[in-house]
Amino acid sequence: MLIPPPLGEKKSVSSSRRIFFYLDFFLLPSRWAKLRSAMCPLLMLMEPVSECFMLGMLAAWATNFLFRWDPLSFFLVHVLVWFLMDWALLHVVQVSKSEEGTGEIYQSHDLLGSI
């Protein structure tokens, strides 16, 4: 972590330092996930049950109540879509992590320099 300058000193940020700030911001969730998995490994196994399955059952009941759709079919489609989206997110994270050393990650975050 970078320490901010003391009060009264001018803060000059070069473009390379600005890129570091942005990269540090985007790598923060990765570090947080590693810490979380190290501290609570059982939670990683129980998370799909607590989120995906519970929300799927509640949504299946709601669609059955509102639209008279088959709750089992809705639940199975919900779980399938949930796992496909989870797989896609994992793929995006792994691909961006493998491209870290190639410099392509800097190009993808150049849009943030205009903000």
Please render the helix and strand layout as text.
Elements: H1 15-39, H2 41-67, H3 71-98, H4 104-108
Helix pairs in contact: 1-2, 2-3
Note the main attributes of this structure.
115 residues, mainly alpha, 74% helix, 0% strand
Produce a short descriptive summary.
The protein is mainly alpha-helical and 115 residues long. The chain is built from 4 helices and no strands.
The biggest beta sheet reads:
none
| Count of all domains | 1
Kindly state the number of beta strands: 0
Oligomeric state of shown chains: single chain
Low-pLDDT stretches are 105-115
Helical content band: over 70%
Task: Explain what the structure shows.
- The chain has 115 residues and is mainly alpha-helical.
- It has helices at 15-39, 41-67, 71-98, 104-108.
- It has one domain (16-114).
- The chain contains four helices and no strands.
- α2 packs across α3.
- The two termini are 22 Å apart.
- Mean pLDDT is 75; it is low at 105-115.
